[in-house]
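note to self — DONT lose this again. spent like an hour looking for the file last time. sequence + predicted structure for the chain T wanted, 230 res
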Amino acid sequence: MAGSPLFFDAGPVISLVMSRLFWIVPELKKRFPGKFYITPAVQKELVERPLTVKRFEFEALQVMKLIREGTLEIYTKVPQQRVQELQGLANSTFRTDSKTMDVLQSGEMESVASALEVNGAVVMDERTLRLFIENNTEMKKLLQYRFQKEIVVDKDKMNRFSKQFEGLTIIRSVELVGVAYQLGLLDAYVPPQKEGREILLDSVLWATKYNGCAVTEHEIEEIKGFLLKG
């Protein structure tokens, strides 16, 4: 993470807010020299839309506070032409019922396209784009499971899209929580019992999963095994 700008998609921010762990973001920012960015489309998703819904107003105010304080900065140099090209390519790759499927949204595409421009990393929880980039052969299975329909794939377009992102680092909210644990930011929550650190780590990792982070039980156990070794 050190030195490289991080572009936050909306999903990880929402996961951390809902898990009551959003406070770790400014604490992590203090420890790493890279900028923490959100793009205009992500700002709209995190602030403008939630402010119109009573249920989500306070979530929006929490994000606004971090923007005011400079923890999260709005990235204004989004390469919009590349965003449109990538989104057009992605959303013409899969078809069902003879219609193309819009599988990716503008916020996540702005984040990854911007990260590519400045050699940054992306903080993203949503499984669709991560699979598209990291393991595109699983995309068809995921979409068929979600929509319960046969999906037709243009493999050439799928591979062309994935190739654009070779080398891009994608970080999930669950991994940010793991870093916070490593840094001792969560130590105040360790319960006074023999396996207190494991209980704490288990609780925060599962909290992020239940609040939107796409992480499997096996991955949680792997993260715990790695972090508890120290």
